[in-house]
Amino acid sequence: MINREQFNDLIVKEEKEQLINLLIDSLDKEIVSVRELYKERILPSIEDFECPFQEDPLCIWKEHVRTSTTRTIIEVIYPYLLKERKPFNGKKIIMTCPSEEYHELPLRVVSDWFELNGFKSVFAGGNTPLNALIMALDYEKPDYLGLSVSNPYNLYKAQNIIDAVREKDSSIGIIVGGRAFNKNNDFVKTMDFDVFLKNIDDIDAFAASLMVDVGKKRDGE
Ligand code: B12
C-alpha cells in the first residue's frame, strides 16, 4: 500500500500517472479501502496544502494542479467506492454550493461520503444558479439539501438559498458544512439550517443516527 510519504511525494512532484497506477493497484489488490484512502491520504494532502504566496509565487499554480490531480483520483476511485458503500438508506440528498463559490472539491468529497453511507447523492457542483436549483427540487424530490461554503463571503448567498428552498418545500432538511461555517461567527448563528456537520466523521455519525431512527420506527417506538 502506498504510504502517506509516498503519496505526498508523488503529489508534490506532480507524478500523476504513477500515483494513479499505485492507487488503483492497491484498491484492486484490496490492500486499502476507499475509506482509508480518503481519510489517510487524499484529505490530508489537500487540507494541509498551504500557499505562502510571498515566498513561493508559483503556489497558486501548484494549488490548481494539486486540486485537479485530486479530482482525477476521486473520479477514478469512484467505482471502488460504489463497491464499498452501505445499502441504500432510502434518503436522497442533493449537493450544491452558492454561485461564485469555486471551492467545489469539498462538496465533491462530501457528496461521495454521503453516498458511501448509503444515501442517494446527487452532486450538482459549485456555482449552481439558484433558479436552476429551485426548479430541480420538483424534479429530484430530495429529502435533504447539502450546502458547502468555504468562502465566508458566500454565507449570505447560502442563506438566500436556504430561504428559497424553505419557501418552495419546507420538508427538505438543510445540511450545511465547509470552512466558512467552522468559525460559527455572528452571521452563522443567525442562519436557518437544520444540521451543521463539521467533517466526514460527523457525516458517518449523522447517517448512523438516521439508521437508529429507522430501527426505532420499525420497533414501534
Ligand atoms: C483547493 C483550494 C482552492 C481551489 C478550489 C478548487 C476546487 N475545485 O474546489 C481554488 C484554487 C479554485 C481556490 C480558490 C480560492 N480560494 Co481556496 N483553497 C483551497 C484549499 C487549498 C483547499 C480547499 C479544500 O478543498 N479542502 C479540502 C476539503 C475536503 O476540506 P474542507 O473544505 O474543510 O471540507 C471538509 C469540511 O469542511 C466538511 N464540509 C465541507 N463542505 C461540506 C458540506 C456539507 C453539506 C457537509 C456536511 C460537510 C462539509 O467536510 C469536508 C471533509 O472533511 C484551501 C486551504 C486549505 N488548505 O484548506 C484554500 C482556501 C479555502 N481558499 C481560500 C481563498 C481565500 C481562495 C480565493 C478567494 C483565492 C483568491 N484570492 O482568488 C479563491 C476563492 C474563489 C471563490 N470565489 O470561491 C482561503 C479561504 C479563507 C477564508 N476566509 O476562509 C483558504 C482557506 C486558503 C487560505 N488559507 O487563505 N481555492
Describe this entry's structure for a reader.
By secondary structure, the protein is α/β, with parallel strands linked by helices. The chain folds into two domains: 4-84; 92-218, Cobalamin-binding domain (Rossmann fold). It contains ten helices and five strands. It is globular and about 50 Å long. The model has no long low-confidence stretch (mean pLDDT 92). Cobalamin (B12) binds next to helix 3, helix 4, helix 5, strand 3 and strand 4.
Key features of this structure:
10 helices; binds cobalamin; 221 residues; Rossmann fold; alpha/beta
The main sheet orders its strands as 2-1-3-4-5
How many extended strands? 5
| Small molecules held by this entry | cobalamin
Q: Secondary-structure element sequence?
A: HHHHEHEHEHEHHEH
Domains, number: 2
Which class best fits the helix and strand makeup?
Answer: alpha/beta
Low-confidence region ranges? none
Q: Per CATH, which architecture of the largest domain?
A: 3-Layer(aba) Sandwich
How would you characterize the largest beta sheet? 5 strands, parallel
Task: Provide a quick synopsis of the model.
By secondary structure, the chain is an alpha/beta fold. The chain has ten helices and five strands; from the N terminus they run H-H-H-H-E-H-E-H-E-H-E-H-H-E-H.
Question: How is this fold's topology laid out?
Answer:
Layout: H1 4-12, H2 16-28, H3 34-47, H4 59-84, E1 92-96, H5 105-116, E2 120-125, H6 130-140, E3 144-148, H7 155-168, E4 173-177, H8 179-182, H9 186-190, E5 195-196, H10 200-218
Parallel strand pairs: 1-2, 1-3, 3-4, 4-5
Bound molecules: cobalamin.
Cobalamin is lined by residues 43, 46-47, 49, 63-64, 67, 100-107, 109-110, 146-148, 150-152, 175-179, 197, 199-200, 203.
